[in-house]
Specification:
Length: about 220
């Protein structure tokens, strides 16, 4: 978003506000091309029109606040990605299709489109008709951009369906690795480091609060290293 003009920055901030509200954050009116973001205990950070997340260290002095901040960062990064594409995306021209749909990606028999609405950008994937003049079998994802992208990669033949993991599956893999590291006393130092690196890689694919939510009811029964 670094080189976009002011109207584009405002559109980005408005969309970021929609996404953050969906994630449970409180957003205040945009001021001087910055979007203030708050949680229950008060101000957390600000999002700039250029896609930066600005915060004071004293506002993220707890694990919960740090998790919340990471969720904001991930959400802003995702929103910045599709809004930058949307700014120059062509209209989807297909017979019988009404409304403003923009092509975010087109590969093979599949197309990923964005539909700007008053409630935010909505996402859908279709398959092209044999003559590529129309589309069919729409999969609608509302505001879930990541899910729409995963669906597009499968429908377009870019990645086999079995090669993709759902977020819930990734969370289970993460916790299985964590269990092994905590309970297997025969692990060598080197093997433990390998599993730690794998956990970091898997965890990086998940929303920041996903692991915390999964851990919450189990904390009393866990043995921490």
């Amino acid at each position: 978003m670094n080189h976009q003009n002011e109207p584009a920055q405002l559109r980005f901030l408005e969309e970021a506000a929609n996404q953050l509200r969906q994630n449970g954050f409180t957003v205040e009116p945009i001021e001087d091309h910055h979007l203030p973001v708050s949680v229950e205990k008060g101000r957390l950070c600000r999002v700039s029109g250029k896609g930066s997340v600005l915060y004071r260290q004293e506002n993220v002095d707890s694990i919960r606040a740090q998790d919340a901040l990471q969720t904001v960062i991930d959400t802003v990064k995702m929103t910045s990605e599709y809004m930058a594409i949307l700014e120059t995306a062509p209209r989807l021209k297909a017979s019988g299709l009404d409304g403003d749909y923009r092509v975010l990606a087109d590969f093979g028999d599949a197309v990923l489109a964005a539909h700007p609405t008053e409630r935010g950008v909505q996402f859908v994937t279709w398959e092209w008709d044999f003559d590529r003049k129309g589309v069919h079998h729409g999969h609608y994802f509302q505001d879930d951009y990541d899910a729409a992208k995963r669906d597009f990669t499968v429908r377009g033949g870019l990645v086999p369906k079995d090669a993709l993991f759902e977020p819930e599956q990734l969370a289970e893999i993460y916790h299985a690795l964590s269990f092994v590291r905590e309970q297997d006393e025969t692990l060598s130092f080197g093997r433990n480091q390998e599993l730690a690196e794998l956990m970091e890689q898997v965890g990086g694919l998940l929303p920041a609060d996903a692991l915390r939510q999964r851990d919450a009811p189990e904390q009393s029964g866990m043995t921490m290293k």
